[in-house]
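Entry:
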Amino acid sequence: MAFVLAASTVVTTGAERVFWYWTTSPIAHLEVIAYYATSVVAFFWVLHRFAVDDVASLVLALPVFAYMTEGVLTPVLYSGGPFVPVFPLWFTAWHGLFATGAALFGVRWMLLSRRMGMLWSTMIALGVFWGLWSTTLWIPENAQDPELLAQHETLELLSATEFAFYAIGFSLLFALGHLVLDRTWQTSFDLPRWLRVVGVLWVAMFLISWSFAYLWAIPNVHQLHRTADLAHATAPSHERIPDDS
């Protein structure tokens, strides 16, 4: 359990806390760590089941974590539709290569191989990137994004000083996660049969639930398009948005 929570803490910092911040509530962040733990268990079992023992095999396995998190536990992966590859590629890069591959396995490799110069350089570069990336939430289109506001009611825009404390706090949590991983690392991660059965049923429940949700959404999306076409057709000519054609 300590290993799973520590790995989830490290990955959550890379996947969520570096990507954006939406609240300073510690309880909410702990909930996200517990949520990610499901994907961590599934991912490490895949590594064990398919004997992943080199970098090339790890790169091929990393999308499993991304798709489990954003495609099974939540339907965000499908937001662009079946013919838009943006979200699968995006989550493979951020959740897979960055948060899991680099933040978890890459940093652990640097620690174990005593490459302190490389580690410090990487952390400094990450800090600069984190600070620059975080300013994107100040853009009005992001701060007032209706989808984000619907999920969280309000987005807490932090000042530079508040963000500094935020970043330092999660950096310390990230370091603590790696410290616990060093003490509890699992060379084998096989799961008992009953837990694998429960896991399959759990995943199936999510997939079926999201499938029904999307079937329900299809006529609503169609109606939205019809409403938009009607509004365009009935608008005064000077207010109409010209067609691309």
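Residues 220-225, 238-245 have pLDDT under 50 and may be disordered.
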